[in-house]
């Protein structure tokens, strides 16, 4: 396919890991379809990438909390006659607090964004990719999907779904010519924790936050190499490996302590 016909569709592309992934695709001369909620932020990013990389950038503002939004996105891309060579499901949010106290409407919105949107977009574009025998799908999951997450129970549950779902469809389509990879970051320096009201959690306030550019690079390189999944960051790899040999109740208890509000002064 001529390079100027290649499009990468990236959700949550206006900041954080999604922005850094969009930059990597643009640097390799993919045209972009970038998706986020706020039109002004999308236009700013689109202008930046057009100027910096000389690629076409199509910004599409969608509130992916809404059940119909991913279907509308697929229809709009189709109406523009764009062929998606790479799909990056990145948009996701969390909520901090004990499950008995948290807002069920917010949690249902998270399930819609973190799970249903991934499923709808993957279904639509995987079918096209399999039919032509090529394509790339990067699913941004989390090490949270590998670990029980007290004070983030629904978020961790959604990411467990994403990782399991990705591994299953990868096996189903391993001979199709389509590369499917799950990226599992840990705590990363993005706006995620502000949106989740989690900035005071010990693991956020006192712990190391990865650079989203480094996380994106790990995911991008793993995708191009055809790897099944990549845990970004050495200490995150260690944490996941240790959790596989320690009883789940002890892992949960440890993470509960890490997630509790910090008592450390600024």
TrEMBL record:
Q: Which UniProt keywords apply?
A: Oxidoreductase
| Keyword Oxidoreductase attributed | yes
Q: Which CDD domains match?
A: SDR_c (cd05233)
InterPro entries, per database record: NAD(P)-bd_dom_sf (IPR036291), SDR_fam (IPR002347)
The record ties this protein, via SUPFAM superfamilies, to: NAD(P)-binding Rossmann-fold domains (SSF51735)
Entry coiled-coil feature ranges: none
Highest taxon of source = Bacteria
**Is Chaperone given among the entry's keywords?**
no
Q: Name one Pfam family in it.
A: adh_short
Q: Name one GO molecular function term.
A: oxidoreductase activity
Hey, which family's this protein in?
A: Belongs to the short-chain dehydrogenases/reductases (SDR) family.
What name goes with this protein?
Oxidoreductase
The top of its lineage is:
Bacteria, Pseudomonadati, Bacteroidota, Cytophagia, Cytophagales
């Amino acid at each position: 396919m001529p390079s100027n016909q290649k499009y990468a569709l990236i959700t949550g592309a206006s900041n954080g890991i999604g922005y850094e992934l969009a930059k990597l695709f643009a640097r390799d001369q993919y045209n972009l379809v970038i998706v986020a909620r706020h039109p002004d932020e999308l236009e700013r990013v689109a202008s930046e990438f057009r100027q910096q990389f000389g690629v076409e950038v199509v910004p599409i503002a969608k509130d992916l909390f809404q059940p119909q939004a991913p279907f509308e996105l697929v229809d709009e891309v189709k109406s523009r006659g764009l062929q998606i060579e790479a799909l990056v499901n990145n948009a996701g949010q969390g909520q901090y607090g004990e499950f008995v106290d948290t807002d069920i409407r917010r949690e249902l919105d998270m399930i819609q964004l973190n799970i249903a949107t991934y499923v709808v977009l993957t279904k639509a574009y995987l079918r096209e990719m399999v039919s032509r025998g090529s394509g790339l799908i990067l699913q941004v999951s989390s090490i949270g999907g590998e670990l029980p997450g007290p004070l983030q129970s629904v978020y961790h549950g959604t990411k467990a779904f994403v990782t399991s779902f990705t591994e299953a469809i990868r096996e189903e389509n391993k001979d199709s010519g389509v590369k499917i990879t799950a990226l599992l970051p840990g705590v990363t320096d993005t706006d995620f924790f502000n949106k989740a009201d989690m900035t005071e959690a010990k693991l956020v306030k006192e712990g190391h936050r990865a650079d989203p550019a480094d996380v994106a690079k790990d995911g991008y390189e793993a995708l191009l190499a055809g790897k099944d999944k990549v845990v970004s960051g050495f200490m995150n790899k260690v944490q996941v490996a240790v959790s596989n040999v320690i009883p789940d109740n002890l892992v949960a208890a440890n993470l509960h302590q890490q997630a509790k509000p910090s008592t450390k002064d600024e």
